[in-house]
Design brief:
The protein has 119 residues and is an alpha/beta fold. Helix content is 21%, strand content 46%. The strands form three sheets. A four-stranded mixed beta sheet has the order 2-1-4-7, with no helix packed on it. It has a three-stranded mixed beta sheet with strand order 3-9-8, with no helix packed on it. The mean pLDDT is 85. Bound molecules: copper (II) ion.
Length: 119
């Protein structure tokens, strides 16, 4: 009787531990918001955990006073126009890349980075 009770407790702990591990994976943030305004891409640096395979970035250009009217990410063959006040999403595979640079058509005039970090 005593033995089965401690077995039950061990089992319970194992179940809770696995649920916690599962929810931690589910909590990895994979969607990011970037505003394009007078300062350029804000934020201009996005850190993603190395475990992520795919991320999504929502861009919203909120001013006409910028030349960053598109987002270009050459490594991923992404080149999208950013209409004023319209959310534009890009989604791509980040596994295997450490650092990705995106920017406007004038290359590094306005740019941002996506950096993979181990957490
Ligand atoms: Cu530019």
């Amino acid at each position: 009787m005593k033995l089965s009770k401690s077995l039950f407790i061990i089992l319970l702990i194992a179940v809770f531990a696995s649920i916690k591990g599962y929810s931690d994976v589910g909590k990895l943030k994979d969607t990011f918001e970037i505003e394009v305004n007078e300062k350029g891409y804000v934020p201009s640096k996005i850190e993603i955990p190395s475990g992520l395979k795919k991320i999504k970035i929502n861009f919203l250009r909120t001013t006409d006073k910028t030349c960053a009217r598109e987002v270009i990410l050459e490594e991923q063959n992404i080149n999208k126009k950013l209409p004023l006040n319209k959310k534009v999403s890009i989604s791509f595979d980040t596994s295997g890349s450490k650092e990705l640079i995106f920017g406007c058509h004038m290359e590094k005039m306005f740019s941002g980075k996506i950096i993979t970090v181990s957490k």
